[in-house]
Amino acid sequence: MPRLPPVPRPAAAASTSTPDIVAELGRIISTRRWNKGAAYKRLAPSVTAAHVADLFRAPPAPLHPATALAFFEWVGRRPGFRHTTASHAALLQLLARRRAPANYDKLVVSMISCSDTAEDMREVVDAIQAIRRTGGARLALSPKCYNFALRSLSRFDMTEYMGKVYSQLVQDGLLPDTTTYNTMIMAYCKEGSLAVAQRYFQLLRESGMELDTFTCNALVLGYCRTGDLRKACWLLLMMPLLGCRRNEYSYTIVIQGLCEARCVWESLVLLSMMQQDACSPNLHTYTLLIKGLCKEGRIDDARMLLDNLPRRGVVPSVRTYNTMIDGYCKSGRTKDALGIKSLMEGNGCDPDDWTYNSLIHGLCDGKTDEAEELLNSAIARGFTPTVVTFTNIINGYCKAERIDDALRVKNIMMSSKCKLDLQAYGVLINVLVKKDRIKEAKETLNEIFANGLAPNVVIYTSIIDGYCKLGKVGAALDVFKLMEREGCRPNVWTYSSLIYGLIQDQKLHKAMALITTMQEDGITPGVITYTTLIQGQCNRHDFDNAFRLFEMMEQNGLTPDEQAYNVLTDALCKSRRAEEAYSFLVRKGVVLTEVTYTSLIDGFSKAGNTDFAATLIEKMINEGCKPDSYTYSVLLHALCKQKKLHQALPILDQMTLRGIKCNIVSYTILIDEMIREGKHDHAKRLFSEMTSSGQKPSATTYTVFINSYCKIGQIEEAEHLIGEMERGGVSPDVVTYNIFIDGCGHMGYMDRAFSTLKRMIDASCEPNYWTYCLLLKHFLKTSLGNAHYVDASGLWNWVELDTVWQLLDRMVKYGVNPTVETYGSIIAGFCKATRLEEACVLLDRMCGKGISPNEEIYTMLIKCCCDTKHFKKALSFVSNMIDCGFQPHLESYQYLITGLCDEGDYDKAKSLFCELLGMDYNHNEVVWKILNDGLLKAGHLDICSQLLSAMENRQCHVNSQTYAMVTNSMHEASGSVVSELRGEAA
Q1: PPR repeats span which residues (predicted)?
Q2: How far is CA 930 from the centre of its chain?
Q3: How far apart are CA 830 and CA 301, in angstroms?
Q4: pLDDT tens digit string along 316-363?
Q5: d(CA 425, CA 458)
Q6: 918 near 513, Cβ under 8 Å?
């Protein structure tokens, strides 16, 4: 047998006895007839096992072995006294060291009998080894004693120590018997260490001993534990040939293994075979079969087996009933589960805690009120709810979005002195954030800290994810910082949620920087993370970077999924690059799905190639990919845009023939085109058809009609329709309001236009850039006495600031105070017209009003400064932006650095570049946007090379693909310059 590695000897437990008592006890026992004297009788009630252990270990003159043994036996007979493993160990050590004669077997068995923990059994093993080490062969224990020790170690699954004891037995020259081998085989089989168990089995066979049923059962168990059911069944069948009779335990082991592996049909075959083998299945066997049938979804078969148990002479136990209840609950049949509870109570079997917890858990999936009623009745019958019970009810109310009920149960839970665990807190926080009850979510998070708990990554990430989905990215970043301060490591979900939130908040540069942070934390970005970033790049129409991310994902060993391809395809198609998208998919060998086809059809349709779009629909159908109403709406929209209503209408019939119901989008597209062509009666009939088919008009549908009324000057009808849509529960959107404001302006109703602006803001609909453009256009036209036509597209080239001030004053008159969005929209207009001076005056005005500029305003001003070559001013805006806690976009640095190089100010460009390297940006994106797409495209090869060297010197994290891309671009640019010079020389 190979020797097992030594286990460190545990440090001796600190003495709990009193030194004075031990010293006095030592003096008393050293006298003759100590047990008869008054001194001992007075001290005896105070003597504990710890005193006895310290007495035997006390230096410098230990007790005589015979005296120690006599005292040990004498004190052990005292009523209420119980020796411990420590007192046994101290005696055995004393006896063995003096090689004193004693019944060591009896002492070791006694020591094992008072061992209640694994730590106690370790002390037993140490004592056995000490006896052998100090006493030699003359103090060897008997095989019976060793077997008892092995069986006791097996109870605690201490196979490593069993190996030591077995080795000790062999070293003592003793022969292991069948009990020894069976104990070892069973222990290792239970542990799943079948290879070690088979070695002991081989030793048993080599010793000439006969196998028995216990041996075979142990091996069958081992095969089942390791998942080798084929060998387990083979051995079960072979047992009679090996001279071992099969018993109930033999069959039940295999039946359990088969049921756990969802092979219930085979286990039922074994049940039949078991009965033919004169083995009566016991309650445990039937319970296993009921559980197996429930796991396979055969609930009715399990119930039939349960109902047949009394006829088979088996009385179901609470565990059997609980198994059936669990099966019903997991299949959603809570009514039947409650029926089992009634059945078991009728049969005199009281439900236990598991019964109630299982039923409550099942009812909380849609019937939480019933679950709470059951809890109350269970408490009245003596049931003590646990944190799991309450958490299930809290979770049930949270799923139903009944937060107040969930909080009520939380308060009941706390008043019953049952503390919430992290799971319960996590469920509550998740639903509070989802419902935008942020203050209560923060209070709950603080409550976790107050109760001495440490929120885990799941709780933190739930809050971060909730904030990001609500658009509160700043709050999410605060929680992220708190998480880091508390030493809780983020996971890939945490980062993915933050990246999603930052991209939704149009902070792509910060989202890209998180990739670097992830990698520094040892977390590999997954497909979802890359896809989210690709979406962000596509949103900004930066397709070169989107493709670079796509390649980076593949080069990192990740396989893009359907969503990744769909994101890129849809963005390309919406940017009228459908052919590029299609060739990309063909090159990659992507199997097109319904979503992909729809994006392509949309792209080709918008590009005017409706014939190919129609071909794609036919190809889609031929490949078994059924188009839906949205697919057809895309084609309808393209035909209507091309004024081909006569071709669009037959598509409705085609959809009907294919069993596809026309959706609200398709109806709205057709209604819009009918109105544009002056077919108002047709449009109204189609609107009636839409509503009668159960389709509820959307804000866009109403806006189509409102737009038509506004164009012909029927403002009253348009306003009436806005009221109608509000009464119908449809909120007007910014497009609706803008169209109505434009209509009012055309009719000269400026009071009504400003009143609509107030109404819009009161309805929490934020005005956008076009809202203020329209107001300013019509305000200007009115101030000119309707003498001039004002074109909104060229408005910003010649509008004066005095007119803007009048507009803002008029807004205040109507109760609308200009906000940062108001100033931002007007500044955006001046920046588009490169009127930097006016934009800066507006900036000063808003700051004077106590309104701080936001990130978007600074970004627009920096771009305008660069466009007008006011780089010093741009640098001051960058500095102000950073001072305000904003991080400039990389595009801002691209404009600045490239512009400075165009002006020949290379030192300032290099200094600015080195400053940004110390900030939180993704260095791959820095190379893409500033070096490759900025400097190289502008022809600044030398400074580009210098800045790349600066990145290398700072050991910036740039992957090999990005580095190869920029160096290749530099070589190509260098070759182009050389060719030009040669051409000039020639």
Answers
A1: 177-211, 212-246, 247-281, 282-316, 317-351, 352-385, 386-420, 421-455, 456-490, 491-525, 526-560, 593-627, 628-662, 663-697, 698-732, 733-767, 819-853, 854-888
A2: 35
A3: 77
A4: 999 999 999 999 988 889 899 999 889 998 888 888 888 888 888 888
A5: 11
A6: no
